[in-house]
């Protein structure tokens, strides 16, 4: 099995930020303007589903990657399994919080080969997003 | 099923940093002074294992949490499945990179209720760790 390793691109803090920004925009769209569609996709009570924000600007609800270890950190699994236990607003907030944490893990994974100062610059840029 | 939600503590950026610092110290110990023991725990080629750094300063190799969604973001799963495909140093580096990304996701999850400036302060503190 091939081990996961940080892909070469994006090698710069600008590249990391652009990846973060694109995925974040996709996730915000899923949780706001597309929230009804997103909510509907999470109607399974048996399958385990995740919300992915992709680096092409799209979002997707699907089961977690079947092959582990995965290349990128994985988002929260099973977002659908608690959907009906809380209000819609609370559920969207929970998914948003986990999505935010996932975005940071992806950025720090992609930026693993940056220097400490470059990573700090990435976070500084992210803060003002 | 109870939905995951951010636990009340730690409510401050200092609390988030202390949680980060304690988990980080545990993970560094697993990957350095305890590396032989850690390496030995990851000898399964069938079970899926993760490396956890706990907030009591201990580290643990175990399967991922069976119940999803989980309370906290989960670390990389299946670290053992690629152990024998690369050199020991490269494998430890891969686990370290994923552990670093996981630490950030935990900190941003715990700090979800902080303001933007407080989160920035947390990251600034983490930078100088």
TrEMBL record, chains A, B:
InterPro entries: Alfin, Alfin_N. It is found in: Nucleus. Its main location: nucleus. It comes from the Eukaryota. PANTHER family: CPG BINDING PROTEIN, PHD FINGER PROTEIN ALFIN-LIKE 2. Histone-binding component that specifically recognizes H3 tails trimethylated on 'Lys-4' (H3K4me3), which mark transcription start sites of virtually all active genes. This is PHD finger protein ALFIN-LIKE. The lineage of its organism: Eukaryota, Viridiplantae, Streptophyta, Embryophyta, Tracheophyta.
């Amino acid at each position: 099995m091939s081990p996961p390793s940080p892909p070469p691109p994006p090698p710069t803090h600008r590249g990391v930020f652009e990846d973060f920004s694109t995925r974040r925009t996709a996730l915000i769209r899923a949780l706001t303007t597309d929230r009804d569609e997103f909510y509907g996709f999470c109607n399974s009570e048996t399958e385990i589903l995740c919300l992915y924000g992709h680096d092409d600007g799209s979002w997707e609800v699907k089961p977690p990657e079947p092959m582990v270890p995965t290349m990128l950190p994985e988002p929260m699994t099973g977002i659908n399994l608690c959907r009906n236990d809380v209000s819609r607003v609370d559920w969207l907030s929970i998914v948003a919080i986990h999505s935010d944490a996932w975005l940071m893990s992806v950025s720090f994974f992609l930026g693993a080969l940056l220097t400490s100062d470059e990573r700090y610059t990435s976070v500084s840029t992210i803060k003002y997003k």
